[in-house]
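dumping the sequnces here before i forget
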Amino acid sequence: MSFNWFRYSSPQTFYPLAGRLAPFFWIAAVALTIAGLYIGFFVAPTDFQQGDSYRIIFIHVPAAWMSMFIYVVMAGWAAAGLIFNTRLSSMMANALAPTGALMTAIALWTGALWGRPTWGTWWVWDARLTSELILLFLYVGFMALHASIDDPRRADKAAAILAIVGVVNVPIIYFSVKWWNTLHQGSSVSITRAPSMASTMLLGMLVMVFAFWAYSIATALTRVRGIILERERHAAWVAQLGTE
Amino acid sequence: MRDALRAVFLRDILQAWRRRADWLTTFFFFIIVVSLFPLGVGPEPAILRVIAPGILWVAALLASMLALPRMFASDYTDGTLEQLTLAPQPLSLLVLSKIVAHWLLTGLPLVLMGPLLGLQFGMAPDMLPVLFYSLLLGTPCLSLIGAIGAGLTLGVRGSGVVALLVLPLYIPVLIFGSGAVEAVGVGTAPGGHLSLLGAVLMISLVVSPLASAAAVRVALE
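..and the predicted 3d for all of it:
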């Protein structure tokens, strides 16, 4: 018997699979967060330059990575939905968008909290900060477009086109902001030179990165189950779920 | 093929000519927004001269965005757009000729008006031609990128969504456009910024008609 790769591309078969997988990712997210925060707050040494305020990187860096990575994954699912006309792909893109926007907001917020004691200001128009802010706008645009179209299939396709155009634009935006930044301000603030990091700091950060991964997958799976139920509510198999 | 493109183009120009108030709104919106800034910031010439390129460019972005719904909306409601998708010619090229017509009506007036408003802000004489060229290269990019947003938001609830979609995508044009003018202001050559603006124009010229046509097709499903 050959394995059918498309078996789980239908909402009906994916719904129970997501239900089985999600608890594992939730448990992993909680366990890794506890371990990562313990390493970050109690094991990792105090930084000799920044004191204890550097410890926010255990939240900040994973959130910033996820914010960018989720956008690409979301656009990938959206493109798959547009190309193969698979409903589930678009639902996955839709399920990822709020988590990506949340990660972007966390990255900006924690960055501001870190910037205040370190740079003495909540916000600088640095290239990274500015492009992260624009990334948040792109997420908001994706969700706003999807929400403003009543027919879900049409909304999927329109949002997919926007996400693909966004992915083409992200590098252009990043470099334009970078060059704009170098034109306008000198090297008053440099966050590009990476200080050599103690190995426990690195370990804590890696554990937190995996925790954020697990959290993002868990929320996406849980949310996609909700989206499946909402969209397939007229299907016979959903009606049967209620009677079981 | 060429006849069809010309017909679409001339039809849009003729329609706009018969309803002049439509595109004149964009033009006066641009002038009014630019004039609001001295009232808000204060009349000091030194400050105004520094912020002038940014103000003119942000106003151009907003004015271009204001004009976007008109690109496809009336053709969408009266069914013309549906007929265009049934035409044997590629929809992306038909859309491109609509974009060109739209730029001539809403973008070109801004290009011509920009240097005059620059004078009002006390811009140096050598900055004005650069402002002109940057607007000449940049406003077509705005029409092209905006067409994607205009297509995607056809028939959606709420009218403000197009701003959320389009303004973040406009950012590189804003940076290179105002950057070119500011470069002259600080005594460096604007060529690099203008070249990058040209590159953005070339990329959007290739990508935008395809994406806009796809967006229109989704809207008509």
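Chain B has a mean pLDDT of 89.
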